[in-house]
Write a structure and sequence with these properties.
The structure holds two protein chains of two kinds. By secondary structure, chain A is mostly beta strands. Chain A is 0% helix and 50% strand. Chain A is globular, with a radius of gyration of 13 Å. The chains are: A mainly beta, B mainly beta.
Chain lengths: 107, 120
């Protein structure tokens, strides 16, 4: 199965700062990479699909990039509501797999 | 606005069968993949399996394949998960999820989650 490695595990930043989250695949997945945000006690929310496309209703401060094995989620200027756990997911091959997540916490 | 509402037993003993059902309200059932994803307490997400609306495509996580069944009841706009011979390792929040294809081809609608605990 395709393994997704997210880094860092925890990222401590302040509101207004720029966040850069990484997801690396164990083999090429083209652009079949999706990002989700999860807040405590809630289901995940779709942010980015096909590596760089924002889902409906997602603010422009969220952007995704990458292809092949290396992907990045960038939040250009952190808002208080952005502090959460972020997961990447690949749909290149069965089984669908997720990364272990990056926890974005307030510094 | 489509809603996924799920239910099922929340406390099981080892070797019992986990059964969860998810109903799709205010939205089409056809044309989507219907998925179960679980999350052990404090951990990440694990894809369990999914089925398309016509039941022509069913895929399971190989780690669970021998124990899991996902089925549809199109007359009720519902889909279900059965996982037999549960152990403590199956303790998790289970989410029913919609996968919309071809765009965004991602999990765009989630149920509220059901915590299933396995304990003797």
């Amino acid at each position: 199965e395709i393994v997704l490695t997210q880094s860092p595990a925890t990222l401590s930043l302040s509101p207004g700062e720029r966040a850069t989250l990484s997801c690396r695949a164990s083999q090429s997945i083209s652009n079949y990479l999706i990002w989700y945000q999860q807040k405590p006690g809630q289901a995940p929310r779709l942010l980015i699909y096909d590596a760089s496309n924002r889902a409906t209703g997602i603010p422009a401060r969220f952007s995704g990039s990458g292809s092949g094995t290396d992907f990045t989620l960038t939040i250009s200027s952190l808002e208080p509501e952005d502090f959460a756990v972020y997961y990447c997911q690949q749909r290149r091959d069965w089984p669908i797999t997720f990364g272990l997540g990056t926890r974005l916490e307030i510094k | 606005q489509v809603q996924l509402q799920q239910w099922g037993a929340g406390l099981l003993k080892p070797s019992e069968t986990l059964s969860l059902t998810c109903a799709v309200f205010d939205g089409s059932f056809s044309g989507y993949y219907w998925t179960w994803i679980r999350q052990p307490p404090g951990e990440g997400l694990e894809w369990v399996g999914e089925i398309n609306h016509s039941e022509s495509s069913i895929n399971y996580n190989p780690s669970l394949k021998s124990r899991v069944t996902i089925s549809l009841d199109t007359s009720k706009n519902q889909f279900s998960l059965n996982l037999n011979s549960v152990t403590a390792a199956d303790t998790a929040v289970y989410y029913c999820v919609r996968r919309q294809k071809p765009i965004p081809d991602a999990y765009d609608m989630w149920g509220q989650g059901t915590l299933v605990s396995v304990s003797s």
